[in-house]
Amino acid sequence: MTTIEIDFTIPEQTIEIVENCNIIGKCIGRNESQINSKITFLHKKPRTNSRINIKAVLFDYSRFDFEGLLKIEKGAVSTDTYLKIDCLVVSDKAFARAIPSLEINESEVKGGHGATIGYLDPNQIYYLKSHGISSEDSEQLLIDAFLS
Q: Residue 96 belongs to what H/E stretch?
């Protein structure tokens, strides 16, 4: 199965899925960075599978605004695809917006999507600190776990 990495520097793009693949997108927003991205994941061929995982970690005043469209064209029978977007907002001044959507023009397919936007869990940080790990290291450990 092929792995494709998303380039978030391109504000609007279409990724045509022609073979079974994993698509990965990871971004980290710092300072006042802004990531605005609109991507269409296009299935035209029959019997293609894709898993799309996007993760964003946002610090400071950074912004992540993402729209992802899974589009399955007529004739792409037996397609199986899923889009998952997860955002971790580390700063109370950071902003995340994730909008997954589907456009399905074929009847014999599997397609789904999901999105989450969350914060570092103070209970997890407390647990790590109670085991001798500093606040900074606890946060970094949780961020690394989120991105893996």
A: strand 95-104
